[in-house]
Amino acid sequence: MNNTDKRRAGARALKRKRYKQRMYIRMALVVVLVLIAGITVERIVKTVRAGQAAEPVVQEYVEDEKKVADPPEYTVDLLTVNPYSRPGIALEQVNGIVIHYTANPGTTAKQNRDYFEGLSLSGETSASSHFVIGIDGEIVQCIPCNEIAYASNDRNADTIAIECCIPDETGRFTDATYDTLLHLTAWLIGRYDLTIDDVIRHYDVTGKDCPKYYVENPSAWEQMKADISAYIEKNGT
């Protein structure tokens, strides 16, 4: 091989070397670009997911239900602890209010309270109530609200009982009794975080005709519940 051929061969070898170098550089650049693209896509996906997870939660604000803070005036005249009318058993949870009527027309709240007291001596039956509302709207408390009363059968263990005096055999409450009942029931609903649906009749527990007028006249019972709700709306805070 002469010098000219050697120079040509060397030039071709150098050219091939440089070509390979450029190819390696291009391949390296492609790899780097692929890696960068992969990292970028991953970051975008993470950002989108994070954005979705961080979407603000719409807070629903529900206005607090009104409660009647002040009870009506009442006289506390508790029964003595005895097996027939005040067993002294703890009332651990109040889940309802049961409305009753006394079924003895013309009697007062005090007379009905004393009847319950007399059962401790006679033992003729088991009966009592947390509150008794008289014909003139007066209230006597017979049993503390943290003890059960013998008034509502299977619901004695989780309800407050209210007995209402009546003027005649119809069993309809006087206006004074009715108005006091609205106030007392509304206050108890707020005190124990109940709703109007937690106000029931003795009838709703056992099927007994009590309170008589408000069993025989279902519309009057529904009106009473509506009046209790209206009382809370008007006088609650």
TrEMBL record:
EC number: 3.5.1.28
Gene3D superfamilies recorded: Peptidoglycan recognition protein-like
GO biological process, one term: cell wall organization
Domain N-acetylmuramoyl-L-alanine amidase: 84-219
Enzyme class, broadest EC rank: hydrolase
Catalytic activity: Hydrolyzes the link between N-acetylmuramoyl residues and L-amino acid residues in certain cell-wall glycopeptides
GO molecular function: N-acetylmuramoyl-L-alanine amidase activity
Annotated InterPro entries: Amidase/PGRP_sf, Amidase_domain, NAMLAA_amidase_2
Keyword Cell wall biogenesis/degradation applies: yes
Keywords: Cell wall biogenesis/degradation, Hydrolase
A Pfam family: Amidase_2
PANTHER family membership: N-ACETYLMURAMOYL-L-ALANINE AMIDASE AMID
Name used for this protein in its record: N-acetylmuramoyl-L-alanine amidase
Taxonomic source organism: Roseburia zhanii
